[in-house]
Write a structure and sequence with these properties.
Helices cover 80% and strands 4% of the residues. The chain has seven helices and two strands. Strands 1-2 form a two-stranded antiparallel sheet. It is extended. The N and C termini lie far apart (41 Å).
Length: 110
């Protein structure tokens, strides 16, 4: 089992996905029509369908993606050491977002 997990981890590192995510040009992405037109189309379609739950979930993902690029997230780990005074707000915020997602997906009936 450990070898299987190591092979998956090695494959994930070989794809260089974490490095590609760190190097994304956000400003260029949101001005690129090949991304922006389908994204706006999805938002307009969800508004037309009045799928506010799906819009909120989409907003949470976009907000989390935006938040991960902030300077605050870059200073959570400094010189290989975790800054504990910055982890607690992240844990509380993450727990609140997770609770909201669980409530929206499982707690409510449409």
């Amino acid at each position: 089992m450990v070898d299987f997990l190591r092979s998956i981890l090695a494959w994930f590192e070989a794809t260089q996905v974490p490095q590609q995510i760190k190097e994304v040009d956000y400003q260029g992405l949101f001005t690129n029509p090949w991304f922006l037109v389908p994204f706006v189309a999805i938002v307009v379609y969800l508004l037309y369908r009045q799928a506010f739950r799906d819009l909120i979930i989409l907003g949470i993902f976009v907000g989390g993606w935006w938040f991960s690029g902030l300077e605050y997230m870059q200073t959570v780990v400094v010189d290989g050491h975790l800054q504990m005074n910055k982890v607690l707000p992240l844990l509380c915020g993450g727990a609140c977002v997770l609770a909201l997602l669980i409530y929206m997906l499982f707690g409510r009936s449409d």
